[in-house]
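so im writing up the methods section and need the AmmeMemoRadiSam system protein A record in one place, dumping it here so i stop losing it
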Amino acid sequence: MSATLYQNLNKGELTQLLDIAREAIRGHFSEQMPQAPQLDLYGKKLIEPGACFVTLKVDGQLQGCLGTTVAHSPLVLEVHNKARASAYQDRRFMPLVEEQLDSLTIEVSVLSKPKPLAVQSEQELLDYLATNKVGVILSDNHQQALFLPQVWESLPKPVDFIRQLKIKAGWNAVYWSPTMKIQTFDVNSIHGKYF
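--- predicted struct ---
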C-alpha cells in the first residue's frame, strides 16, 4: 500500500467501503453464500493493496474490531474479510446475531503505513502524544497491541491511553522496557448505521 492511499480516498470511495462492509455482514444472514466483491466494479484506488480495520458497535458498545496494519490484498477484499471477521470471529465477543442489526453501527478505517517513533522513555512518548492524537502500536518481546486514533475519544489523556494499550498487550499498566518499539499511524475512516 502506498503511504498516502488512506489520505487520497474521497467520500464516495469511503462510502463504497462502508457498503462493502454492510454487504459482507448481510451475506451471513441471507440464504445465498456470501460473495466477495468483484474487483472490476471498483476504481483503481480501492483495488490497490490496503490495510484496514472494521469496528462494529451495538447500542454504542464495542461488538467486534479486527483488521491488519500490513497491506496484503486489495482494499475492497480486506474490508469485506475484516467486516465478516469482526462480526463473527472476534474472540472477545459472541458472534453478531440478527436481533442486533437494528442497533449496529459499522466503522471502516483505512490505515496509513505505520512509522517508527524514536523515543527514549515512556515520558517522551506521552509528551509526543499530548499533541499528536495518532494510532499507536506498542510491541516488545513478541507481544503487541494497537489502538486506532478513535480510541482517543474514550481515553483522551495520553497516560490513560498508553496504560490501557499496555494492558491490552498483556503487560501491567506501568510496564516499560528499553526494547519497546513504538509505531504510529493515521486513518481515514467512515462510519454509519447498518440499516
